[in-house]
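Summary for the steering committee. The consortium agreed at its last meeting that each partner would contribute one worked example illustrating the joint modelling workflow. Our contribution is presented below. We chose a case with several input lines so that the handling of multiple components could be demonstrated. No manual editing was applied between input and output; the record is shown as generated.
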Amino acid sequence: MAEVKLFRTWSSTFALRIVWALEVKGIEYDMIYEDLSNKSSMLLQYNPVYKKVPVLLHKGKPISESFVILEYIEETWTSKTPSLLPGDPYQRAMARFWAKFGDDKILPLIWEAFIKQGKDQEEALIAAHENLKYLEVELRGKKFLGGETVGFADLTFGWLANLVSVFEEVAGVTLIDHEKFPLLLTWMKNFMDAPKIRETWPPRDKLINKYRALRETLIAKEPK
Amino acid sequence: MANSSCSDVKVLGAWPSPFVTRVRIALNIKSVKYEFLEEALGSKSQLLLQSNPVYKKIPVLIHGGKPISESLIIVQYIDEVWSSGPSILPSDPYDRAIERFWAAYVDDKIFPSMKLINTAQGEEKAAIVEQVTEGLVLLEEAFQKSSKGKAFFGGDRIGFLDIAFGSMLGWLRAIEKMGGVKLLDEAKTPGLVQWAESLCADGAVKGIIPDTEKLVEFAKILVKMKGVPLGKN
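What follows is the complete predicted structure of the assembly.
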């Protein structure tokens, strides 16, 4: 029984970040899969504020919120390489900045572009592209946002490598095209293929079904 | 890194912003001298647009010419650079996680809801006030656990969560006044009431958190200027 347990669902992109961090650092852990329509009493006990995954349990103490968990992992298992954050404070601040930017801007805008149609979708896509431009520039001369190896910001953006092609197939629209975002697409491929990362992808066909159903439900709810 | 000349450290900000307040408190804790460049209301300086092209927002810390944005990221940067000064985050990783968790909670839940109180009315307003009070009760519990009987979330000295939440006190009081509501009270959040007093009296904080009256006036100016009250910027 590992002293680390991770509460996750099979598809949660936020929980996947933690899977990646633990795998990349070679930290032993047990996975506990949650069904969010029927949350376990353990989950409710360990994350009473948000009642969500991921939750990391270390020696019986729970930590919630993916960014908080990632920092905790980095600060606790200091001998486990690779480091997710660089040593220099300015570079650390940059890594944190890009990670936050991803969740504040990119994630919601790509999601909007995925679930909307027509003019709403067009507008969301334009806004998404406006923001993705910053990422494209940041990737110049780098294999990963963390440099040669996967780092903090890469893990938080990893959902792009996982989900964009699923969203594109389900919605029938190109979200990230290689003319505008060649470096980003290369990064997505590098991340997809990175050791320890590629073994963890949720099954693609399951993802397609899930997001197709979700999109249909959301579109049906839209006021006409 | 102990002595930097004043021009080495600049803060782009504005006096009403609680996010800017965080950065100033952190620099004060570390006794770092800085140049405060006040952004004019309703316009963004070239320096701001250059230093924070992604968000175009304050605060921005410019250290040795390099800009850093996002208040809690800036506070962590300050803690890491001026490491010889008093620590802002605790040393234990789990304690750090707890403080980061609640700081994010203030930003994600407490402050956005607080702002909505201004524009809400009747039942909606009552519901939001209840939401905020419940959130503050959670913070009260966190305070009791974290402070271990001392004055601050950080114990004897002001720490990360004290800064993250304390920076909101000016607006909290202003919103209480404007909305005719009580958010922090002796009955539900006695620890936080005491904490707020201790925080505002602390040397690093004094004069940084804006006066309640000034904020109330400022909120009125915002409405006149944009036709948009505080909750909707």
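Chain A has two domains: 4-76, 89-220. The domain at 89-220 of chain A is CATH 1.20.1050.10 (Glutathione S-transferase Yfyf (Class Pi); Chain A, domain 2).
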